[in-house]
Amino acid sequence: MALLVAGLLAYAVVIGPFTGYMRDKPMEEKLGYVPSVKVMKSFSVDQKELAGASLVFKVLMYYGTLMGQMPQGTALNDPGDLQGMSRLLHAAVQLDPYNMDAYYFGQGILTWDAHQYQVANNLLDYGMKYRKWDWFLPFFAGFNSAYFLKDYKMAAHYYDLAGDLSGEPLYKSLASRYMQESGQTDLAIAYLGGMVKTAKNDAVKRSYQLRLRAFQEVSRIEKARNRFTLEKGTHPTSVDQLVRSGYLKSVPVDPYGGSFSLEPDGKVTTTSKFAFGTNKK
Question: Which sequence spans correspond to the domains of the chain?
Answer without folding.
Answer: 1-66+78-132
